[in-house]
Amino acid sequence: MLDDRAKLLLKTLVERYIADGQPVGSRTLSRASGLELSPATIRNVMSDLEELGLIASPHTSAGRVPTARGYRLFVDTMLTVQREQMATPEFAPHQLVPDQPQKVISSAANLLSSLSQFVGVVVAPRRSSVFRHIEFLRLGERRILVILVSPEGDVQNRVIFTGADYSASQLNEAANYLNAHYLGLTLEQVKERLQGEVEKLRGEIAALMQAAVTVGTEAMSQPQEEVVIAGERNLLAVSDFSSDMSHLRRAFDLFEQKAQIMRLLDSAGQAEGVRIFIGGESQVVPYEELSVVSAPYEVDGQIVGTLGVIGPTRMAYDRMIQIVDVTSKLLGNALSHGK
């Protein structure tokens, strides 16, 4: 356990290092902390903090920098965050407009990146194979556009070529029957039921429905972009990376391994609110120079995905928490209203 003096000195050291990026010496610490302590006393406290693994001395520098363990203690017990409201001037111009889910998710990733000046990541909701609405549009002789709308508002369009030519009234009849009798079922379930109800339906209409459901099943089952990443180039302007190309290469390797990012953010989605993963403290974020601030987002009260900011371990965590917290609410609202 640290006493109040040691806590204040650690908090001051972390804040100065985040702000300046330079190892913090005892003289700087004395001025910044406001404590009336002798340089010898401060050096003794720093020595104790170093023995506890909370700070370290890089190379031959007289100053100290926080370790992963020091950052963890800082964000868990010393960080005070003023929760931003969506009406504040900074966030007001960035409202996410309800649209097709994939567009909203891309906009959210770009918003996280532009506000943080780091990397924005959004894990998209799993695509549903349930359809909310189906329409048929005649494009020409024996060519029909099938329009499928999922419960999340995702729209899939596919063209089918039919053996017979259908009139507009026949297309309306088929769409109305599907919308009235199969709403809320998966396309696989609709396909099975149609096979059992072919006798009730006129042959040409049944054939049209089966063709539409087959192509719809293929469309809905196609892999979507599950992880959307924006702003990787922002890291080129971060001194922690630009001064060491090996750090930059490791960061870009992580962005290419989207499965690893998904596992990381999926674990964040199991908890409510914002979570912080400090680089190097576990295998969750294996690189010491990277940290992740993440939060789940909800649609109609249900957690459906996760988003976050990936940046240097030396980041302004209080500000990242605000950005991630507000963006998760903006994304949830946009997806809910876009349905």
TrEMBL record:
<dbReference type="InterPro" id="IPR021153">
    <property type="entry name" value="HrcA_C"/>
</dbReference>
<feature type="domain" description="Heat-inducible transcription repressor HrcA C-terminal">
    <location>
        <begin position="103"/>
        <end position="321"/>
    </location>
</feature>
<dbReference type="InterPro" id="IPR002571">
    <property type="entry name" value="HrcA"/>
</dbReference>
<dbReference type="GO" id="GO:0045892">
    <property type="term" value="P:negative regulation of DNA-templated transcription"/>
</dbReference>
<keyword id="KW-0346">Stress response</keyword>
<dbReference type="InterPro" id="IPR023120">
    <property type="entry name" value="WHTH_transcript_rep_HrcA_IDD"/>
</dbReference>
<keyword id="KW-0678">Repressor</keyword>
<feature type="domain" description="Winged helix-turn-helix transcription repressor HrcA DNA-binding">
    <location>
        <begin position="4"/>
        <end position="73"/>
    </location>
</feature>
<dbReference type="InterPro" id="IPR036390">
    <property type="entry name" value="WH_DNA-bd_sf"/>
</dbReference>
<keyword id="KW-0804">Transcription</keyword>
<dbReference type="InterPro" id="IPR029016">
    <property type="entry name" value="GAF-like_dom_sf"/>
</dbReference>
<comment type="similarity">
    <text>Belongs to the HrcA family.</text>
</comment>
<comment type="function">
    <text>Negative regulator of class I heat shock genes (grpE-dnaK-dnaJ and groELS operons). Prevents heat-shock induction of these operons.</text>
</comment>
<protein>
    <recommendedName>
        <fullName>Heat-inducible transcription repressor HrcA</fullName>
    </recommendedName>
</protein>
<dbReference type="InterPro" id="IPR005104">
    <property type="entry name" value="WHTH_HrcA_DNA-bd"/>
</dbReference>
<dbReference type="Pfam" id="PF03444">
    <property type="entry name" value="WHD_HrcA"/>
</dbReference>
<dbReference type="InterPro" id="IPR036388">
    <property type="entry name" value="WH-like_DNA-bd_sf"/>
</dbReference>
<dbReference type="Pfam" id="PF01628">
    <property type="entry name" value="HrcA"/>
</dbReference>
<dbReference type="GO" id="GO:0003677">
    <property type="term" value="F:DNA binding"/>
</dbReference>
<keyword id="KW-0805">Transcription regulation</keyword>
